[in-house]
Structures are given as structure tokens and as C-alpha cells.
Amino acid sequence: MVNEKYAIAMAETLHYLKGINQNDIDKIPSKFMKFLKDNASQDYVCEFDYTKSLKELSLRKD
Q1: Rounded distance, CA 48 to CA 59, Å?
Q2: Which pLDDT does position 30 carry in this prediction?
Q3: What's the predicted TM-score (pTM) here?
């Protein structure tokens, strides 16, 4: 089990990737994607506006 703040970061990463082109996602190693999915928080709810840049999103700072 990973630290909760890392689990939240993984959930945010996976949620952000939903707005990325599938061709780019396919470049990410499947082993790493499995690690993210296995360790991401199941309780954290992400609400991203995909029209904003990554810098404009309200991601957790810690």
C-alpha cells in the first residue's frame, strides 16, 4: 500500500490521462499504467477542465 498522498497523485494522473490522445497513452509502458491503476486512490474524485493547460489545473500541491 502506498502513502495516501501518492495514491491521490496517481488518481489525478490517471484522470488527466483520460484527456490525452490514445496514441500518446500507448507510449506509456503497460507495467507503469498497471502500477498507477493498482495504487491509485479509489475514493479521490478529480474534476478537471480539459480545456485548461496542465499549469492551470487545480492539482494538489503536496
Answers
A1: 9
A2: 96
A3: 0.78
